[in-house]
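<purpose> Linking amino acid order to shape
<body> The protein record starts here
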Amino acid sequence: MIEIKNISKAFNSKVVLDSVSAAFEKGKTNMIIGASGTGKSVLLKCIVGLIDPDDGNVFFDEKDFYHASKSVKKEIRRKIGMLFQGSALFDSLTVEKNVRFPLDMLSKMSAKEKNERVDFCLDRVDLLHAKDKMPSEISGGMKKRVGIARAIVMNSQYLFCDEPNSGLDPNTSILIDNLIQEITQEYNLTTVIVSHDMNSVMEIGDYVMFLHQGKKIWEGSSQNILDSEKEELNTFVFSNKLMKKYKSAIG
């Protein structure tokens, strides 16, 4: 579990996050949603330590992250896997070497153990056949799957995904959503996803937190999001034409 408590952040006196708290449970897909500029990505960066908040704290399985010793912080970071919005693959490395990169940097595995782990992760995302290809030779959806394989190669306990469906067609988006959900449940990960894709939210959102102007103004599940009386949330949700059709279809 990851707990965030009263996270606040401002840039040049502009408040981006205003005392945001939440609990993200293991084995569930936890989603942070909201319009552009509401602080979603800043919150994600605060949680993983890429940005220092002005106030508040983060706990990884009850371990105080911000006030931890360097060794404890290092231990926590080794358990974090990241799927970046643009996949962030190294163009000069093959698919296999991209996935292997964290192992080369952070693990003490033998070459044989690394190869076996990389093959296992690529097989899990159905890309073992593409291990020798370069990023320029594979599709956008395949790049996302390589990113997922790299994110779990260190036996991660915490998986963070920043707009995982950005730039993908609807069918590929569904594939990525399902893969993230399957891996989350299979490995009992604490998964946190930043998204503006309401179709993804409705399909895999076990827990959903809605940010508006830097504040958490709603939280719940995808099952009850359509029943919310929060005007800001309804405006965000039903600005999507497909969501309007979805609500009509279920009455």
Q: What stands out?
A: The mean pLDDT is 88. Residues 170-186 form the longest helix (17 residues). The longest strand covers residues 14-24.
